[in-house]
Amino acid sequence: MLDRQDRIERTLNTLLPALELAPGRLHAAMRYAVLGGGKRVRPLLAYGAGELSGADLRRVDRAAAAVELIHAYSLVHDDLPCMDDDVLRRGKPTVHLEFDEATALLVGDSLQSLAFQVLSVQSLADDAHRQLEMIELLARASGSRGMAGGQAIDLEATGKTLAVTELEFMHVHKTGALIRASVILGARCGDALSQAQMNEVDRFGKFIGLAFQVIDDLLDAQSSTATLGKTAGKDAKDNKPTYVSALGLDGARKLSEELRADALRALDTLPQSGGRLRQLADFIVSRQF
Amino acid sequence: MLDRQDRIERTLNTLLPALELAPGRLHAAMRYAVLGGGKRVRPLLAYGAGELSGADLRRVDRAAAAVELIHAYSLVHDDLPCMDDDVLRRGKPTVHLEFDEATALLVGDSLQSLAFQVLSVQSLADDAHRQLEMIELLARASGSRGMAGGQAIDLEATGKTLAVTELEFMHVHKTGALIRASVILGARCGDALSQAQMNEVDRFGKFIGLAFQVIDDLLDAQSSTATLGKTAGKDAKDNKPTYVSALGLDGARKLSEELRADALRALDTLPQSGGRLRQLADFIVSRQF
């Protein structure tokens, strides 16, 4: 896993604009937001799925970088005062504190553009039509019917009590859409999987995306800020509905185990029984930060 | 020109998510930001260039919509309190006032995703590789080396005196990049132009983009808020360097005429001597709002 984390770090470092290019301060802030931190869960999922489909790793590099750039942009905007108003991210001051709010806004905007630029240059697939489909998939997963839409639902839900089905609807969009896109984009970089197997990859992505969020809620409730590298206990403080507030600690832990089991079952028919995706499911559910 | 404005309005209306789709409030705000206002200069340029290259108008619809969605997102973010903190846009309260800041942030983010979605679905060109190049072009024109980068330079320039060459560098990015992308994307939807003619289309886009900005500066200095549909006199109030502050009213007017002449000259070798692009150059330089 460390080799892949190293690989995505080097790829992102290459794809981000150099500090020497104008506007230098914006580029410095983009690099600050993206490099040197994060678990890189979405890139790892893309690599895991790409290996199963026999993809050229240099192609998966770009798919993995694109989803991480979208993720990084969403964190920068999510931390802004008008959203979560957070001061700490990946163990460092958030971008709007280290730089300023206007720069943080432009950092997020520019990282989103860069994600689509990265997916459109060079060949990601032998077939350019498939590459267009991959861009469409990332755009849908990021937009108002995906990640950004999930954040809008989250805003409206603050202060309310949600049923587990409503929570699921929110998180299927907010975190789920991009995690699903990560595995599918990785898998689409190669050709070894049948349509039935691609459907199982998608099912895996859906379950592991939800499991990821349940664990996020558990960690926010139970861990320290030092361990997380971001402010802990924020959900309760902000009166946000979470899996912990809906199900309690034990209920949320039980749900995360069920989702892991569902995710692993989806891998059964895949080459190498899912290979590294199996390890990643365990990593996501067992993680402490 | 009215038929094309009507056409882009209908296209945008179709491409924006319906109010009935969740999250409804975000979709309402996206539609508020985009529909029923604006001169649609960028779509008109795309249509004008598309006609010269013999493009299927249904393809140009999508290119025109994509550039207008990027433009609309930039206005919503630009109006936020951490940027220009403006209250009026296209004669209506800005999105963050009509809705709220967090929603305005997500509106801009979602409109950007939608622009790339619009460019990636269906055929925009007979050749999928060319369509990928068009997506790359829009991504570069929007990002840190294009429009968003120009806004970052603008932030840093506030309160400073810039030479005309520095102003030009700022505006080549801030407004110029997307206007150039509009004409090129429109032209790339068809096949009738030679590479030499495409280069002239690009030159036209460069000159007319700068002319557009010079006129913007003149209007901000001379017009009323009621005429503009946005707050007038802001540049001087915010101590922003403009063509008017650098050259005076007469100097700026003279520059806009030179740029119009340069733009028209670039059209000379094109079919129909540039057709509607010629009228658009006059419209852009003669406009009163």
Morphology call of chain A: globular
Sheet bearing the most strands of chain A, described? 2 strands, antiparallel
Number of domains of chain A: 1
Query: Average pLDDT value of chain A?
Result: 94
Q: Do you know the CATH topology of chain A? A: Farnesyl Diphosphate Synthase
At the fourth CATH level, what is the homologous superfamily of chain A?
Farnesyl Diphosphate Synthase
Evaluate the radius of gyration of chain A: 18 Å
Strand content of chain A: under 5%
**Oligomer classification:** homodimer
Helix content class of chain A: over 70%
Overview features:
homodimer; 289 residues; mainly alpha; Farnesyl Diphosphate Synthase; two-stranded antiparallel ribbon; 14 helices; 2 strands; 71% helix; 1% strand; globular
Describe this structure in words.
With 289 residues, chain A is mainly α. Chain A has a single domain (2-286), classed as Orthogonal Bundle (Farnesyl Diphosphate Synthase). Helices cover 71% and strands 1% of the residues of chain A. Chain A has helices at residues 2-15, 24-34, 41-52, 57-78, 95-98, 101-120, 128-142, 147-157, 164-188, 195-222, 225-228, 234-237, 243-266, 276-286; strands spanning 88-89, 92-93. The first copy, chain A, has a two-stranded antiparallel ribbon. In chain A, a hairpin with a 2-residue loop joins strand 1 and strand 2. In chain A, helix 1 crosses helix 4 (57-78) and helix 4 packs antiparallel against helix 9. The interface between A and B is large, with 55 and 55 residues.
